[in-house]
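Listing S7. Sequence submitted for prediction.
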Amino acid sequence: MGMRSLARAHPLPVRDFVRTAPAQPARLSGFDQGLLWVTVGLLALGLVMVYSATVALPDNPRFARYSPTYFLVRHLAALGIGFVAALLTVQIPVAQWEKWAPYLFLGSLVGLVVVLVPHVGVSVNGARRWIPLGIMNFQPSEAAKLGIAMYAASYMVRKMDIKERFFKAVLPMGVALGVIGVLLLAEPDMGAFIVIAAVALGILFLGGVNGRMFFLSVAVLLGAFVLMIVFSDFRRERIFAYLNPWDERYAQGKAYQLTHSLIALGRGELTGQGLGNSVEKLHYLPEAHTDFLLAVVGEELGFVGVAVVIVAFFWLARRIFHIGRQAIALDRVFAGLMTQGIGIWMGGQAFINMGVNLGLLPTKGLTLPLMSYGGSAILMNLVALAIVLRVDIENRQLMRGGRP
């Protein structure tokens, strides 16, 4: 009964249910082509901008042994691996993912533990976030984002009858988030924890958890973030630098990336300096190909380029949510909540990255989904979107009178 009431809370137009056809298994012929092409467009733009942002890096002594196409080739390899993984993923029925959800979540926790083991996890700039796998360095926190979306959706389906009771419905998820938070802050990777917490809480809210319990959970989480900032000199200085980046105490220190990101965006004006003509990427703006790729887009393609990226991500997140609502209306609660969790992940992480680049949010180490350089991020983004496409395929088949 709980699942059906949740489905009624996400109504769809009647016309979506009147088409019938003889029952037949799901085929991959019917899917959301708009979602696919917007994804391909963002990947293509990201590839071009990663090459533009890294082509001059060998001039820096730190990257002197790299060729001008080093990062381009590795990014292309990540795209190739991601596309193969996506093609395999879209073949797997959503019901199978529901069965695997708890085990995949447990596997992501194991990955977060393994990366902290000395001589196993790779340390870069003081953060231990990557496990070397030869062809790429894998970041377990990226797998944890998909893992929490699946686990939280599965959890809500299993707890549907007791979702009004705090200790049986919300507290266990809070404990799981606490474990993830401890592991991620040990790396440290507070940005990934923020995204994962947003996905988990978003799914709890969309799943119908009591409003008072939800807001209490949010308040506790915000309180934890405030305490982490208050008791950490490093994080506190970042907040001060964000509030006044041009202060001489911060402009050459904690706010260095932010000030140069703002300079890059200012130089871009309306239509940009032209593709390849960024000055800030010439060793002024650190991590221009990862966390601050949008600043290079702004400098080279201007306000127009940044606006196109923002609109594309807004459309992508909105479309993912539509597919999720459609699944819930078809009484496929796990598929719907998982899809909406992926929408929160993609939209929320893009929003945070853009906010950091534009100076609207404090600096955090989060990449721009689908666009920034990073093999494991690209891989998990494509796998997640392949799952969304599979949900859409099964939705369409059900609306034609078939079976998923």
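Caption to Listing S7: primary sequence and predicted structure tokens for the chain studied. DSSP finds 13 helices and three strands in the chain. The CA atoms of residues 39 and 227 lie 38 Å apart.
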